[in-house]
Amino acid sequence: MSVRDRLVSVGTELLEEHGLAGISLRSIAGAAGVSHGAPRRHFPTYDALLAAVARRGLEDLGTEIGPALAADDLRAAARAYLAFARERPEMFALITRHDLLEGAGGNLREITGRWFADLGATLARTTGRRPTPEEVLALWSGVHGLAALTSRRATEPTGIDPAAALDVLLEWVS
C-alpha cells in the first residue's frame, strides 16, 4: 500500500474511532508509521487529507446505495443510507460537511451530484412522472434528516424505529 493510501486508510480508522475532533495530521502520521511531515508530501492541507478520507466514505456509501437506486428500489436505497449513518456515524458526519471540505479536493460534489441525479431518475421511473428538483431535494432532505438524527442516536428516546419512520416518509412519494 502506498503511503498516500495508508494515510487515507489510517485517517478513516481514526476518524471512525475518535471522531473528527479527535484526529490530526500528526495523529494520522503517527498511526500510519510515517514522519509527521509525510502527510504534507501527499496532501497540501489537512482538509485535503480529510477530503480523501471523505471520498473513501462516499465511495463506501455509494457501494451500498448505488445498486438499490439502479434497481429503482427507493426503500432499499434509503435503508442503506440510514444503516450507513447508524453504523458509521463519524464518517457520515464528515461526508456531509461540505462547508469544511469545499475546495479541499476529492471531487466530492461529483459523487453527491450524481446521487441527486440518480435519485431524480429513480423517482421518475417509480412514480411515472418527472419530479422537480425541489421534490428530489425534499425527499433527500427527509431521508438525510432521519439518518442524521439516527447517526447521533437522537431518535432513541422516542422509541420509534427509524426504519418505520423511513417507511412513512417513502409512502408519501409512492
| Domain tally | 2
CATH architecture label name of the largest domain? Orthogonal Bundle
Report the biggest beta sheet as strand number plus sense, adding barrel if it closes. Answer: none
How many helices? The count is 10
Describe the structure.
- The protein folds into 2 domains: 1-42, Homeodomain-like (Arc Repressor Mutant, subunit A, Orthogonal Bundle), CATH 1.10.10.60; 54-171, Tetracycline Repressor, domain 2.
- The chain is built from 10 helices and no strands.
- The model has no long low-confidence stretch (mean pLDDT 92).
- It has helices at residues 3-18, 25-32, 38-42, 46-70, 74-87, 89-95, 98-101, 108-127, 133-151, 162-171.
- The protein is elongated and about 55 Å long.
Compact summary:
With 174 residues, the protein is mainly alpha-helical. Helix content is 74%, strand content 0%. The model has no long low-confidence stretch (mean pLDDT 92).
Any key phrases for this structure?
Arc Repressor Mutant, subunit A; 174 residues; Tetracycline Repressor, domain 2; elongated; mainly alpha; 2 domains
How are the SSEs placed, and which strands pair?
Layout lengths: L2 H16 L6 H8 L5 H5 L3 H25 L3 H14 L1 H7 L2 H4 L6 H20 L5 H19 L10 H10 L3
Helix pairs in contact: 1-2, 1-4, 4-5, 4-6, 4-8, 5-6, 5-9, 5-10, 8-9, 9-10
Protein name: AcrR family transcriptional regulator
Keywords: DNA-binding, Transcription, Transcription regulation
GO molecular function, one term: DNA-binding transcription factor activity
